[in-house]
Amino acid sequence: MKRSLRYLIVLVFSLALVGVAFASGGGEQAGGGGGTGKLVLATNNAPEGNGIAQALRQWGQMKGIKVEVVAAPYSNIYEKEVLDLSQKTGLYDIVLLDDPWFTQFAENKWLTNLTPYFVAIGQGGLSSDFIDKSTAVCKYPYATGLIYAFPAVGNAQMFFYRKDILAQYGMPNGPRTWDDVYTVGKKVSDSGGGTMFGYVLRGTQGNPVVADFMPILWSFGANMFNADFTKVTLDTPQALAAVKFLTQLVSIAPPGSASFDAQQLATFELEGNAAMMINWPAFAADFEDSTKSKVVGKIGYAPIPSSATVGSSEIGHWLAAIPAASKNKQAAFDFLESATSVEGQKGGVTDFGNPPTRKSVFTDPQLLAMSKLSYFPTLLQAISNSTPRPRIANWNEVENTFGIYLSKVVAGTMTPQDALAGAQTDITALMKKAGYIK
Amino acid sequence: MTWKVVRYIVLLVSAVIVVFPVIWVVSTSIKNDVDIFAIPPILVPQHPTDSRYVDLWTYGLLAYLLNSMIVAISTAAVAILIGTLAAYSLARFRLPGKWSGRVSFWILSTRMFPPIVTVIPLFQLMRFLGLVNTRLGLVIAYTAFNIPFVVWMMRGFFVEVPKDLEEVAMVDGCSRMRAFRSISLPLVVPGIAATAIFTIILSWQEFLFALILTQTSASATLPILVSSQVTQYQILWGQMGAAGAITMVPVLIFAFSVQRYLVRGMSFGAIKG
Amino acid sequence: MALRQRFALTDETLKYLLLAPTIVLLLVLTIYPLVFAVAAALQTVNVRTGARSFVGLGNFINIFRDQLFWNALKNTAIYTGAGVIVEFVLGMAFALILTEKFLARNVFRTIFLTPMMLPPIVVAIVFKIIYMQQYGVSNWLLALVGIKGMLWEAGPATALFSLILVDIWEWTPFMFLILLAGMQSIPTDPYEAAKVDGATWFQEFRHITFPLLTPAVLIALLLRLMDTLRIFDQVFVMTGGGPANATETLSLYVYQVGFRFFNVGYATAMSFILLILTTVISNFFISRLQAEEVFTQ
Known about the structure:
The structure holds three protein chains of three kinds. By secondary structure, chain A is an alpha/beta fold. In chain A, 48% of the residues lie in helices and 11% in strands. Chain A has helices spanning 2-26, 47-63, 74-87, 99-107, 115-120, 132-136, 163-168, 178-190, 207-219, 237-251, 262-270, 284-287, 329-339, 342-352, 359-362, 365-368, 376-384, 395-411, 416-434; strands spanning 39-44, 67-72, 94-98, 139-140, 146-147, 149-153, 158-162, 197-199, 274-279, 299-302, 318-321. Chain A is globular. The N and C termini of chain A lie far apart (77 Å). Residues 25-35 of chain A have low confidence and may be disordered. Chain B is mostly helical. Chain B has a single domain (25-266), classed as Orthogonal Bundle (MetI-like fold). In chain B, 75% of the residues lie in helices and 0% in strands. Chain B contains twelve helices and no strands. Chain C is an all-alpha fold. Chain C has 14 helices and two strands. A two-stranded antiparallel ribbon of chain C has the order 1-2. In chain C, helix 4 (67-97) runs parallel beside helix 8 and helix 8 (159-184) packs antiparallel against helix 11 (214-229). The longest helix of chain C has 33 residues, at 264-296. The model of chain C has no long low-confidence stretch (mean pLDDT 83). Chains in contact: A-B, A-C, B-C.
């Protein structure tokens, strides 16, 4: 027993030592910029992020600069970025961010003002080749202020529909108005036998349901706030009409919609069980992929339907910014200039399917000839007509609150009137807490 | 129906319930997307694909696997080393006043902290020490989480070893540490084994702090790889199944080979003279 | 020999020396976070400017008015209560069955230990796949017996229940293991004496097995309670707290408030409430355990 015990002690001890040695030897000291000239990118691990990541690696090789890519799922990249930016640790030199986060980052002065860098290369700001709405979301205050980011990936929601099914009802180019959507959708669902539905919507509380609903809200002529965010405007008849219409859509959508997410919608559509939906362009590629889709070639793209006003798509660009605490700002800027150039964005399109933000790339004949990019003209129009989510720093909290009420409406556990009244009260309180409403 | 028959039926049904999800994960990992959503559900696909595993491999699977293994084993070794000594002290000696009880309770209480209390300060601390995105940083953090468990487990085992055994040896001229090494320690080896197994498993599974403290595959562990398969728009079910399978398999193999130590080691008072 | 004795460490020194590394490590890694947390809980951070302001107990007062907090507390209580009780009963049952020797017993023991070895997020994903409403195995099985369209983790009424099922699947083995180990160490004499006296199985259980199992029972319950009160990984991955906050546990709500809404002060204040709650509950078990030890020593 004694000898084997001695072996055990020696084993544990050596394991501890070796372990610690291995542990420290392996990891990189993520000293971020730190003047070492290494560029660190924080991005989401989806095609949007992968596009910029690849561009960075290639650029790094070309210039002989070391690079590092920190990729995380969408649900975590926000926290990682906020952690670094708010603690000013300088861990990242470039951050890819979803445009709703932009206001908080810019208002807290966590991002670098890019105007001086543009001036240094003889430009006044972002090139006019970028779509106006794309440039607008990169500025703080919105559309009028200083530039804090590059528009990297041109996401905006589109309306997806089954060309073959809608053609049967006389709308080969998609529905024009929301009433059309309901009329046709109801017919499809009624004859669908429980497996085929006219419309699928996102009901998961938070971002999904709000992103799905905002275009409807806007189409009915309503909005969440007034122009300078000093008043919550959900207590209007237009807003009520919009939410009531939502319940109509729920009645023709599959059961369980209250917990649907973009992914479930795509699955329904890919399996051929849904006729219409609002969703992001990222799914367009999947529809043409025969290993994933049962409806190759049957999906059409249209602008958001109208109601009281012309339909407006919700913009959801991915922006690329430079943290204020970065120690390699010039190198980061040079890279982003190159990555968002015409060639850079074309590469992003062909290699990763990332929509561009430049008009010239959207209208490039070579790209337009590719069948998998048949949605480009619709997307360009969608972005040009888009509306951003309210540019407030506490959008996360407001969206969450609004999302809870909307989700209850979709689940059928709350009436539209009560939901709107509750949302009006709660969101007003939130805006007061944040100092937007005095 | 006799009890014996009923017993086997109950056990078999339960075994199926226990094992089925594990099999389903592996099955998902080799199915094409179309098969994953097929109704009726398919257990063994007609055209299995290894593309998910290939994807993960190019993504850097090996690095994640190595990180998990190194971190888990290192953590267990360090935690057992430090924790066993502390446990011995708590079991054998009384601190003045009520401190023994207080110290024991305080050590265990660190396991009660909700994660958010520690996440931001821990991140700041690691950043200050330059240990963000390093395996060492992770080992230090995990050791801190596991020590309370180690101390409590090992203390229980040491308490079961009668004091007299050591005292007899010390009368004969042994020092306390000698008695510890030669007498008490051998008797608690099953306990050490069981605690080590638990620590390895807990470190293998940990998610939140790996999320915060790691950035790239230089230090990230398998749970991070699994969660990375949830992209913004869709859950890559196939890849997730593959990542899940790979995270499960080593620990299952490990568990099967050591399970008898686990049961034996956990038995209180199994250390009989 | 004499030399060795002189340089041998005395009990007095050893007492502190052996404890030192542990105490130092834990101090460093808990004191700073604790100080930070206390400081944070007494402040608020403006989401627009990052400016900090001292609010004293303001955060704590707000907690009591916060409906979402009470909702989270309720969810956590249900999750913990139901989960731990069922896991305990099942774990005890399986431990009792698998104590006796019979053919293939060890195989079954090994199989039943499997679920707790798996990382919680992997388990969460596995069940997400199984629970998939239209395409998942669970609904297909239910349809075979005529029940249609169960929403599982997607439905407000069934979500928490679905998550508790997952917890039970994963952690009953843990209870089972501890209780089994406890049972293995009960000496056989009392049972032999009881048999002589003609006791039934139930009497044996009630008067011998269960009382002698008390330390194991207490430890099992204590550890599971401490962990379930903090539950995060599975819920985060499976439902993110939805639908309609039906599965939002305290840890999840704290994470959301602290990281998504950047309301670190408020989040930390809630964490303290959770910490106090856990401490009070644990104390009950720990004091019972310490009492037990005094008895057996």
